[in-house]
Amino acid sequence: MAVLPNAGADALLMTPTPLADWLVVAPAVLPLLVGAFLIIVRKRLHWQAPVAITTLALVSLASIALLARVWSEGTLVMTMGRWLPPFGISFTVDLLGALFAVANSLIALGCAISASRRVIRSSRRYGYFAFLVLTAAGVNGTFTTGDIFNMYVWFEVFLISSFGLLVVGSTRAQLDGTMKYGVLNLIGTTLFLIATGLLYGIVGTLNMADIMRKLPLIEAAPLMTLATLYLLAFGMKAAAFPVHAWLPASYHTPENATSAYFGGVLTKVGVYALFRVLVMMFPVQLLELQTVVAWVAGSTMMLGALGALAQNDLRRMVGFQVILGVGVMMAGLAIGSAPGLAGGIFYALHSMVAISAAYLLVGVIERRSGSASLNALGGLWKDVPLLGAIAFVLVLSLGGLPPGSGLWPKVMLVQAALEAGRGWLTAAVLVSSLLSVIALGRFFLLTFWRPSSTESRSKHDGTPRVLGVLTVVAIVMGLYPEPFVAAAVRASDGLLDPAAYINAVFGEQG
Amino acid sequence: MEAVMSLLVGCFFAAGVYLMLSKAIIRILIGIVLFGNAVNLLIFTAGRITREAPPVIAPDMDRLTGIAANPLPQALILTAIVISFSFFAFLLVLALRTYQELGSDNTVQMRVAEPEGDTLPPLGY
């Protein structure tokens, strides 16, 4: 029984890792260290926000530098402890991982800035900013690791930090929401661990590049079961129908900046893992599963759209928009061709920006009017025309209308779906978009144009700078989509042909 | 040996899933513990059970020869145990606190975040 892989190969790298290559782990390690530091100095409340913001700014710079290097040099690898792969844990950053890491770091930075003015003293004392930085570390780790078990560990790192972030403040709704979020997500990651344990039993390696190399050579193994388990586990993390129930139960309960970060980034981790594992490691099995994925994608979109229509509370409405977005990204997975995957990746980037902005917008509206209920809101256009303009751009972006950022990825997906002959999936994308536009349009109409029934409570709120910046990014993505499309296409090419990824880890002879 | 272990893992999974289907939070949590332990045993079994051959390289050799026990699954399980233990501790405290605040550990009655009979959005302007 050959369980020890590559017995007889050289095991150690004799030259030290070049200093520049430490950039590969910087987006994950830096926030991890500072998160620990923030817990040590938890009693110095005035340190928390500045340290967190500075760290996340540095992490953003590191991820942008990493993206620039990956863009010019291709996939980068750093193997821990100078063990040669597959013995050491290889951090492997390809374009997809680098793109997502940049988006995650920037949105975490935005949410930290936004939270620095809002989060009250007691939440700071119980570690709000430490949890935020640690969650960002876990998510960046997931995006940069090249080892499937290590990915599970990063999942748990951001999951336990997100529990803290979700519950800090301890209102009754938060406790209720966190209980459901906690239990269901823990079951999801346990399923991930089951699949990984069985995969190790079959392949005898955990390095993803090594798995990609060895899986096609294996005959008569229950690989279909594994692929389905991974689909279920990551689908649960991404909040896909029918395992989405934890998201509408919890995402509207915490501090607004937390909702913005969770809605923007955490569900996309599940989508990223689906892309990485199913497309790169189980391409044959994914082909078999495509009908299932298409049904899941279609139902998730329709559920999100109908759910958004039925909500009176703004934050819960945005929660269903998150679910709708997950369905659209999974449609890219269901199409499976390069343009389809590229559309899914671009949509994920758009959704990170637009959803975070939408949650922040709801926060501003809530503070201004003292309510987030569509029944009570009104007259905001007269009060704050600029906020109305921002809201209008975001409505266009989320609904997928020009000039918002949601248009081009949906165009790519619709084209790819038609080329692949998936007519009804195209219909699902378009119908769910229409329903979403109706829900969002009604929100805009009632909140901004309807005459106000009550006097607005607070006039002075400070300018929502982060919200403004995210909105500008959304417009730029809509008006000047070429660089994003090019990046998404290159990332999807890297997914469909894992040879470059494998070569980066094992060298050309591998 | 593997067959017996597989049966045991199956029993653990069955019991864990059965308990997680309950409405009471505390039973769900016990189910999660069983589920987590089932996974640990599963990884252990999937790494093949080899007895009485420790993975130690002989002094005059520079690599392992022959079949030896595989230490990696045990490292994986150790990681998984630490993680599931800390999650369980957190969830227990959270469950206690939720019970104190909401006055119920029945998931059907836990409707604070998603209230029953929530008002619908306005149908007209």
TrEMBL record, chain B:
<keyword id="KW-0472">Membrane</keyword>
<feature type="transmembrane region" description="Helical">
    <location>
        <begin position="6"/>
        <end position="21"/>
    </location>
</feature>
<dbReference type="GO" id="GO:0005886">
    <property type="term" value="C:plasma membrane"/>
</dbReference>
<keyword id="KW-1003">Cell membrane</keyword>
<comment type="similarity">
    <text>Belongs to the CPA3 antiporters (TC 2.A.63) subunit C family.</text>
</comment>
<keyword id="KW-1133">Transmembrane helix</keyword>
<dbReference type="InterPro" id="IPR050601">
    <property type="entry name" value="CPA3_antiporter_subunitC"/>
</dbReference>
<dbReference type="InterPro" id="IPR039428">
    <property type="entry name" value="NUOK/Mnh_C1-like"/>
</dbReference>
<feature type="transmembrane region" description="Helical">
    <location>
        <begin position="28"/>
        <end position="49"/>
    </location>
</feature>
<keyword id="KW-0812">Transmembrane</keyword>
<feature type="transmembrane region" description="Helical">
    <location>
        <begin position="75"/>
        <end position="96"/>
    </location>
</feature>
<protein>
    <submittedName>
        <fullName>Na+/H+ antiporter subunit C</fullName>
    </submittedName>
</protein>
<dbReference type="Pfam" id="PF00420">
    <property type="entry name" value="Oxidored_q2"/>
</dbReference>
